[in-house]
Write a structure and sequence with these properties.
Layout: E1 11-14, H1 22-25, E2 31-35, H2 40-43, H3 46-52, E3 58-62, H4 71-84, E4 88-93, H5 95-107, H6 115-119, E5 133-137, E6 150-154, E7 159-163, E8 172-175, H7 185-203, H8 211-233, H9 238-251, H10 265-277, H11 281-295, H12 297-311, H13 319-336, H14 353-364, H15 377-386
Parallel strand pairs: 1-8, 2-3, 2-4, 4-5, 5-8
Antiparallel strand pairs: 6-7
Helix pairs in contact: 4-5, 7-8, 7-9, 7-11, 8-9, 10-11, 11-12, 11-13, 11-15, 12-13, 14-15
């Protein structure tokens, strides 16, 4: 196991009716920018609940954060904060809204061109230089409610880039599983697959003597396999909803990545598919992930076999046999969750995709990826072409 430090200051407030605690969680006398997405919070009553508990605070609202939040939109919020002297941001939404707020939080006092935050992968470490924020989670998926990372899209160049740093953890996150009752089936499917793949990125690497991290990862995966299809059909079932929400948080709150090398190449390639074709993030992971495991089979086969044995109860004549079965079982699960697993199922204009992604990675200097830095640009091309 590798050396590590574990730091997570987010106050995670979980369960039914926890939104009632909002008034006690936001700093006294804070001037609040309330940030949300496309307006679903007006339909499901969450906006009313939030504003009820913000009484006593001066509140300015900023809506319209897109799925895959746009740099250009977020900069409008940055301007409002500077002009109105906002002292606190409240993100009400899913991962896109929360990621957007993380960028806004860091960009307000950033000295320089804000787009460089993304191009240079700036890490914000000084809490005095960011605007504090909290979240009310409405869509479990990304774990953004309890981590410090974010992914932002630059519309002008069709790029999807990251930022982060220890100063960008939410001060608090209110996570009420009952909010998923009004979510469309597609969003629930996406949420389960996103959380599942977050675990795979940190787990499907190579044996690293991190026994507890493996068991926690397998527990999350087993739980999502058990409840994933059911929660899509029965989002009002609190047992299903609560376990789904907690799994999605645990998948990417920093715990299972400690002491191990992680992959993340599936996400890096998947981000390009979203930027190019507006394919839902989770669906890009379902398209790329299995083929990445096929191409990188030799370096991942031990963990693939462990995944197959422990999560899917598979058996076989050899490590290779079980590992191959595990990939096929993964594809079956993804399809059961309503995912397309080929790019041609999601778009018709894909012939030059591999060339485009490889060229873009080369421009950025991304020439060696994965837990062993052995996913070269040639491997990226092979993975993408296999995904057609």
């Amino acid at each position: 196991m590798l050396n590590f430090e574990l730091y997570n200051p987010t106050n995670y407030v979980f369960g039914k009716n926890q939104i009632e605690k909002l008034a006690t969680l936001i700093p006294f006398n804070a001037k609040v920018l309330l940030v949300y997405g496309g307006g679903s919070i007006f339909k499901n009553g969450i906006h009313d609940q939030v504003t009820e508990h913000l009484k006593g605070h001066e509140v300015i609202e900023f809506g319209g954060i897109e799925p895959n939040p746009r740099f250009e939109t977020l900069m409008k919020a940055v301007d409002i904060i500077r002009k109105e002297k906002i002292t606190f941001i409240l993100a009400v939404g899913g991962g896109s809204v929360i990621d957007g707020v993380k960028f806004i939080s860091g960009a307000v006092n950033y000295e320089g061109n804000a787009v460089d935050i993304l191009r240079n992968r700036i890490l914000f470490k000084d809490v005095s230089k960011v605007i504090p924020f909290g979240t009310v989670l409405t869509l479990p998926a990304t774990g953004s409610e309890m981590n410090s990372g974010a992914v932002i899209t630059i519309d002008a160049t069709h790029e999807k880039l990251t930022l982060g740093g220890s100063a960008l953890f939410p001060l608090f996150s209110i996570c009420d599983p009952t909010v998923i009752q009004s979510l469309p089936k597609r969003q629930l499917q996406n949420g389960v697959v996103d959380a599942f793949t977050h675990v795979l990125e940190q787990y499907l690497t190579y044996p690293q003597d991190a026994l507890l991290q493996d068991r926690i990862s397998e527990g999350i995966l087993q739980t999502l396999v058990e409840i994933g299809p059911k929660v899509v059909e029965n989002p009002t079932d609190y047992k299903l909803a609560s376990n789904f929400m907690w799994c999605a948080t645990m998948a990417l709150n920093g715990l299972i990545q400690k002491g191990v090398a992680s992959d993340w190449a599936t996400h890096m390639i998947g981000h390009e598919l979203t930027a190019l074709y507006e394919i839902d993030h989770a669906r890009t992971l379902a398209i790329i992930g299995p083929n990445l495991y096929r191409v990188m089979f030799e370096t991942k086969k031990e963990k693939l076999a462990q995944f197959g044995e422990r999560v899917f109860n598979l058996t076989g004549d050899s490590t290779e046999d079980v590992a191959e079965k595990a990939i096929e079982k993964l594809v079956t699960f993804l399809e059961e969750m309503g995912m397309e697993t080929k790019l041609s199922q999601a778009t018709t204009n894909y012939d030059n995709t591999a060339n485009f992604i490889v060229n873009r990675f080369e421009e950025r200097g991304w020439k060696a990826m994965g837990e062993k830095q052995n996913i070269t640009l040639d491997k990226v091309r092979e993975i993408v072409e296999m995904s057609y």
